[in-house]
Design a protein that fits this description.
With 437 residues, the chain is mostly helical. It has helices at 17-26, 37-46, 48-51, 55-66, 85-91, 97-109, 142-146, 148-188, 195-206, 215-243, 249-257, 265-269, 273-276, 297-303, 319-333, 337-347, 349-361, 369-381, 387-408, 426-432, and strands at 34-36, 72-74, 80-81, 114-116, 124-127, 133-140. 57% of the residues lie in helices and 5% in strands. Strands 3, 4, 5 and 6 form a four-stranded antiparallel sheet that branches. Residues 246-289 and 413-422 have low confidence and may be disordered.
């Protein structure tokens, strides 16, 4: 008589659609398929959280696999094991019977095993004359063979997630260390910047990190910290570069002592009303007649006095102080770090700082300082921009404003103490008063 393979549990245990689905999956194992049982068990253990298994249930599964005599599980072989609860408890390190039964249910619900209960609920096997098993009642391990590939993919996904999480936590630790030490460096070296605000920003980002954070949150915080780190590093690197200008102080001082500019007819041509708002000579087609030497610091400060308000102590004595003040002005004007970096590469750091100071001086007449700086950077790359006309235009506008103020409010002593007055060298005054051509 043909034997029947049971599909429902014994006694008062109910049948569920999940159990039926697990039995259907167990039948999908290809004919002749086989797997190494301990290798598959390792994959199941790695992916236990995705599968829904527990540590105790895996201890029972490990004991069940040990009752199978072969190292491989084959779809063509006998995959039902029939240990008693006492035998299972012994191989599961003495697990209590109630705990054993509870976690056997977990294995069934996870689809790792299938119950093949006998009519009286006992587990045993009926063998023929040759010792071959004709009918067995117990736990069917065929779902492990059918789902072996799925378990391997889940285990690989878990390993990938663990690796990504580990990398994210390492990145978080490194960024926190770097930012804290860079902030300390900025404070100790008196680098320009509102370091109190930077510390508050850092603490606000870190304050969103709970004790046990998911990987996505850790990566989001890492991105924010990296942006903050890049901004701090850029400020400190720029400040470090300004220290190198000390070696050139004598050169700049020579320029200040001999501040006799050449012909500025080109700057006068480019100081028309439409360009005067931004103090630029970008439309100048011939820059060869401009002075080849650097602008003296004194002339630049006469043309751009607003930058002094951003310097430490309100004084700019050297180009180093000038560049440090420009670094403070950059974020105030809304100039992005990338736009500033491109300007320094195209013009040189000192010329870019002069350009930024001129933009600050006319900030009330410029809608987008960052866009305007990028436009001048593009022209500087083509050799069509110089800071000389820009500074000369600012000086001329200041001189014209001073004359108007002197005419309207001239005091008896000749206007030396009047509002709007300022002092420039005789050579510069003569140069600015040359007739336009």
């Amino acid at each position: 008589m043909q034997t029947h393979t049971p599909t429902t549990p014994f006694g008062r245990r109910t049948m569920s659609l999940g159990m039926m689905a697990s039995q259907a999956v167990a039948k999908t194992a290809p004919e002749g398929a086989w797997v190494q049982k301990w290798k598959v068990f390792h994959s199941i253990r790695e992916a236990r959280q995705l599968i829904g298994a527990t540590d105790r249930s895996l201890a029972i599964l490990n004991a069940l696999l040990s009752f199978h005599p072969e190292a491989e599980l084959s779809s063509d072989g006998e995959l039902i094991v029939w240990p008693s609860n006492e035998q299972l408890s012994a191989r599961a390190n003495g697990m209590p019977p109630t705990t054993l039964r509870r976690h056997l249910v977990v294995l069934v619900e996870c689809g790792l095993i299938v119950r093949r209960d006998s009519p009286n609920g006992k587990r045993f096997a009926r063998k023929g004359r040759g010792g071959q098993v004709e009918q067995a009642y117990g736990f069917d391990l065929s779902p492990i063979v059918a789902r072996a590939e799925e378990f391997q993919e889940l285990a690989e996904a878990v390993q990938t997630e663990k690796k990504a999480f580990k990398v994210a936590k390492e990145c978080l630790t490194l960024l926190r260390r770097d930012i804290v030490k860079l902030i300390e460096t900025g404070i100790e070296e008196n680098a320009p910047g509102n370091w109190g605000r930077v510390q508050q920003t850092y603490q606000a980002i870190i304050g969103r990190l709970p004790r046990s954070a998911p990987r996505q949150l850790v990566e989001d915080i890492c991105r924010e910290l990296h942006d903050l780190y890049a901004e701090i590093l850029e400020v400190l690197e720029s400040f470090a570069k300004t220290q190198k200008l000390d070696a050139n102080e004598s050169q700049y001082g020579c320029h200040i002592q001999n501040s006799k500019p050449d012909s500025i007819s080109e700057s006068e041509q480019s100081s028309r009303k439409e360009d005067e708002a931004v103090g630029s000579a970008a439309e100048n087609d011939n820059l060869r007649s401009l002075p080849k030497r650097e602008l003296p610091l004194g002339i630049v400060l006469d043309a751009c006095p607003n930058l002094k308000d951003l310097a430490q102590g309100g004084e700019i004595r050297h180009w180093r102080d000038f560049l440090a003040a420009a670094e403070v002005a950059r974020p105030m004007l809304g100039v992005s770090p990338s736009a500033w970096r491109e300007a320094c590469e195209a013009m040189g750091e000192a010329q870019a700082a002069i350009t930024l100071a001129a933009i600050l001086q006319r900030s009330d007449q410029i809608n987008s300082a960052g866009g305007y700086l990028r436009s001048l950077t593009d022209k500087a790359r083509e050799g069509q921009f110089s800071t000389w006309p820009m500074v000369m235009a600012l000086l001329r506008a200041k001189l014209d404003a001073g004359k108007a103020a002197k005419t309207d409010h001239e005091p008896p002593d000749g206007g030396k103490d009047g509002e709007g007055g300022f002092a420039v060298s005789d050579a510069l005054l003569n140069s600015l008063q040359k007739p336009r051509t």
